[in-house]
Design a protein that fits this description.
Length: about 250
């Protein structure tokens, strides 16, 4: 997956980089280019997960959990490779189907990692990379849907593009808040904060963006960003409180 993604942009595949394909379908949800640097972080963390797999946990529950994640990781990697090919060859409908399947595999990963308490190593090498990956694929799915609508020439029911951007952002935010609250997954929320910052920067960019023309979109995304950031901080603080409550208190000396 990592090698194919690199080759797809170095060659580039079908004469187009991943960003050039995205730019071919202009829409108000696309963030500034710097936002996509999160892929580098995700790939580094997934590389850590790959190394971690060589050290099989001794506890049966942890070993079984790792095997389950391994299977889903292989599936998501194959699907991601297929998505790259479909995307570069402008097969937007197929790319969306593959993206939804990747999202499903990561939902299952997130559920599996939320069923039982994790060790410190599992939090670093399982929870962190897959929560980040899950969050970004959630954002990418919304972006993929938006690109499909642009590609299909949808008339937006004669409503403005800004209206649909506000609606899409609101729905994406509700989904993010649900996941953050249900799983106490502050990492997932942090990804949305990063993506929304990228969207705002692009909207404010006079040279390569929209130069602040869509003020209601900027306001909406800013409000949604604040809500997700607050929910993520609450999830993080709630998790810390639970961990503190679960820690045994030292016996008082008599």
């Amino acid at each position: 997956m990592i090698a194919l993604n690199a080759l797809a942009n170095i060659l580039p595949l079908n004469g187009l980089t991943t960003g050039e394909v995205s730019d071919a379908y202009p829409n108000l949800f696309a963030p500034t280019g710097l936002t996509f640097s999160i892929w580098g972080v995700i790939y580094v963390l997934l590389a850590g997960f790959i190394i971690y797999q060589f050290f099989i946990p001794q506890k049966p529950a942890a070993a079984e959990r790792l095997r389950f994640i391994q299977i889903l990781f292989i599936i998501s990697s194959v699907l991601n490779s297929g998505w790259i090919i479909a995307w570069h060859y402008l097969q937007i409908e197929i790319s969306l189907i593959l993206m939804l399947l990747i999202l499903l595999s990561l939902i299952l990963c997130d559920r599996q990692l939320s069923l039982q308490p994790l060790s410190f190593k599992e939090k670093i090498f399982l929870r962190l990379p897959f929560a980040l990956y899950f969050g970004w694929i959630s954002v990418a799915t919304v972006a993929n849907v938006t690109v499909l609508l642009v590609d299909s020439g949808w008339n937006r029911l004669n409503l403005s593009e800004a209206f649909w951007m506000i609606l899409i952002t609101a729905v994406a935010t509700l989904i993010a808040l649900f996941v953050i609250t249900l799983r106490r997954n502050w990492i997932y929320g942090a990804v949305f904060v990063w993506a929304y910052i990228g969207i705002i920067i692009r909207h404010l960019d006079a040279e390569n963006g929209f130069d602040g023309r869509y003020i209601m979109v900027i306001i909406t995304v800013s409000i949604c960003l604040g809500l997700i950031a607050a929910a993520s901080l609450l999830a993080l603080s709630g998790r810390r409180i639970r961990l503190s409550a679960a820690s045994p208190l030292p016996e008082q000396s008599r």
